[in-house]
Amino acid sequence: MTTKPRTPSAPMALQGGSAPAAALPSSALAFARTEYHERLAAVRASMEAQGLEALVISDPSNMAWLTGYDGWSFYVHQAVVVGLKADPLWWGRGMDAAGARRTVWMSHDHIFGYEDWLVQNPEAHPMTVLAELMTDWGHGQAAVGVELDNYYYSAAAHRALTEGLPEAEISDATGLVNWCRAVKSPAEIAYMRRAGEIVTEMHRVIAEVAEPGMQKNALVAEILKAGALGTRGAWGDYPAIVPMTPSGMDATAPHLTWDGAPIPRGVPTFFEIAGCHRRYHCPQSRTLFFGEPPKKYRQAEEALMAATAAVMGAARPGALCEDLARAFSSTLERYGFRKESRTGYSVGLSYPPDWGERTMSLRAGDTTELQPGMVFHFMPGLWLDDGGIELTETMLITEVSAEYLANTPPGLVVKP
Amino acid sequence: MTTKPRTPSAPMALQGGSAPAAALPSSALAFARTEYHERLAAVRASMEAQGLEALVISDPSNMAWLTGYDGWSFYVHQAVVVGLKADPLWWGRGMDAAGARRTVWMSHDHIFGYEDWLVQNPEAHPMTVLAELMTDWGHGQAAVGVELDNYYYSAAAHRALTEGLPEAEISDATGLVNWCRAVKSPAEIAYMRRAGEIVTEMHRVIAEVAEPGMQKNALVAEILKAGALGTRGAWGDYPAIVPMTPSGMDATAPHLTWDGAPIPRGVPTFFEIAGCHRRYHCPQSRTLFFGEPPKKYRQAEEALMAATAAVMGAARPGALCEDLARAFSSTLERYGFRKESRTGYSVGLSYPPDWGERTMSLRAGDTTELQPGMVFHFMPGLWLDDGGIELTETMLITEVSAEYLANTPPGLVVKP
Description:
Chains A, B: Residues 39-183 form the Creatinase N-terminal domain. Chain A is an alpha/beta fold. Chain A has helices spanning 33-49, 60-67, 94-103, 126-136, 155-164, 176-180, 186-209, 216-229, 295-314, 321-334; strands at 54-57, 79-83, 89-93, 111-114, 143-146, 169-172, 269-277, 280-290, 344-347, 356-361, 375-378, 381-383, 388-390, 393-397, 402-404, 413-415.
């Protein structure tokens, strides 16, 4: 293990060493090149406003939004480096450089792969190689922003990068790119509408096939199938979160998944799921009862639907995120309910583990002004003492008000 | 946003404030309590060997293995704290404390939830609250290990925890718990065998339903359905990685997922998938051709099968990880092929984004001695200049040799 990893973009496992991949066209980009260029310009404007000369992007959603890169490779260290002039650099594991060549819009001399012995090796860190690459590209003494609070930027990654760039001035730029993503383009909204059609179909399947006593995993199998099949016009991509489908007491907890137990009568089962098309999400939740729901749940349903109406009445450009939270909680309180957690968050392009964009939250203290093109997963849900109810919607802010991106009938799903 | 978050385990959104959940039994644990106690003892022995008095576990796989905690909540900060005497503490978002009460073996006074305004709030970090909790439990001046290179332990989390524990001595304990997981118990092996049955069924479905020109996402829909349905004896859980299913040139890259394009003739499509039961994985890959494969791929198949036989011949307790890598690559070289990336890694219990355990790798330089009960995803795969071939197996080290956990026929899958 003495090799120094300095070969950029090393082709992997080639017979005879030929590397024609670099000469071939990429798979179809999800967006026009002009749109990528506009995104890059927006990010650079934010960088300049924060005094940054380079940005290291580890969030796979941000990497994809900026470059088109798409692959399940975020379990190893990888990044996109944005400077103020040259096109972005894609940097990652050598074998994933092939995936970058297939998916990014930059020319292939901006793609750099590190050697495989650096993968999950406690004796060396790939970020050391990234530091060398950044130095080669003139960022050795730059003001560098990093995504300090991101899943894919570990404490060890930060330590190795910082040690490798001793003359750079490194600061926190968590959320910089995410905020540039807050207002969706028409092309992004078109993808999210397709995701909305997909999740509508997924909920239709639940209402159609769920039966009392059916094993929960068998119902999830149908949900997953419907999600990947998609609709006539839109193939289904994988959502960034798997279906959350708890019943009864397990539905007092919002984030349990499923097992092989039968779906019971007399208690709620909620389904928090999303349709996904080309990595763009439309989450939506519904709650299922076999038999007439207990009165308490009918009251909760009434309260949530009234609060939802209040929010939709308040949602328009110029209103603040916290205004929607206030409209929601004040209505809910009139019905005798309380929800302490945030009532929504921004959604769009995502990779696991979260379909939220981690920018705006619909909660007290968030004074972000709504703008046309913002999209929120609005979360009317209550986790009661013996179960839970979720009736959530993905909501697009339009020029004058707001609209839903999915078309599932409102309210509880009740089957005999 | 002035509230100080000091209420441990705050019940969320209760009508009238009653919290009977704490008094109710948890969902069935995946393992006997004695097994959890043995795991804890093993971790404490490693802690003492490294001079650690407390351990902060952020890896959801490690959290689940130690405590039973199961929920898709790892997109917010959460942890398990292990000291040398008291039972572990579960700490996470307030609403997820309900999920902890449903899934962990510890008593509920060891479950602590933080308030929701700390979620994804750039002005405050929940790790500050964890530092206070740890101080309350006597770890304020302890030798504390953290998982410095983990997806779910960001650079910002480390900074906030370090600042909150100024008198503690914090050091890197990445992999400490993972290494304790290397040798599986009989109960764990039983779950992995069930996962093996599930992945066998998933590959059977691929061979049955795949047709030339079928949209890739429609085939993935069937794969996902089969994976969640599981088998008669085992319900299907979600694998930590979604199906990777590239065709043709996209199969020169190992980690691309799928889209809506038709599955083409004349080029390989590989399927890297896993069966999963109660979070335990059995990955396995196969490669599909419609029509007779080009000679080069038949040669690659022959080489991989010979190399696989060499590895299975060498796999036994006492052999080293690198011995298997050497058996593999020397055989492959005799056939004129080369694979530079590692040829396998340890697998078991996992959450996204990786089904690997991030401990042993089958590669040069890894001198870990094989022991009965270790399980590897053995990765005979070649990414050639115009496509890829993967024929991989999950392999259990037995008392005398090794065996496969899945039962899919070997070699290329060829359909008319």
